[in-house]
Predict the structure of Putative 3-methyladenine DNA glycosylase.
Amino acid sequence: MTNNDFLLPKSFYLRDDVVQIAKELLGKTLVTRQNGAARKGKIVETEAYRGYDDKACHASNGKRTPRTEVMYREGGCAYVYLCYGIHHLFNVVTNVAGKADAVLIRAVEPLDGDWSDRHPKTKTSNGPGKLSKAMGITMEMNTARLTGENDIWIEDAPDIVGTSIVASTRVGVDYAGEDALLPWRFYICNNDWVSKK
């Protein structure tokens, strides 16, 4: 059951600074519900993508396709897409409708026990594809609201004040020219669940 007392408010997602939101999502709790049971992970790694002038963004400079249409919705919904025909990648749409900003959630730290049933031979959630598999995130969750109406949501958590946050370039966006050098990947320093670049 969703506890509305802990949900991130809609206003969190509607702000216009996707880079700041990507930083502030660190430490928050990503929750999915499957067969009535909740699975929770602390967000430990994110990447920001800005629709209007970021060549690494799927919706760069107003590009609209059936896949990216969800990015133009009002912030606070899920953008899930299939990468390489294999991995489901989960993004948080931000900003007001029409802006196409989003934050890729790259890694979470399990908060509710052993997840080895999902990835028995490797860490379960230290990468965007693995975390989606571990948390049951699929294309069925694309466009889902993250504010408690669906089986995926984000809960607030104590600020990670005093924790070192590392900024680096994003992963796998070399095609984006100078935008590939933007330091818009953020992760919690020395956390064992951060993905390897």
In short: The two ends are 35 Å apart (CA to CA). The longest helix spans residues 128-135. The chain has a mean pLDDT of 90. Helices lie at 10-13, 18-24, 128-135.
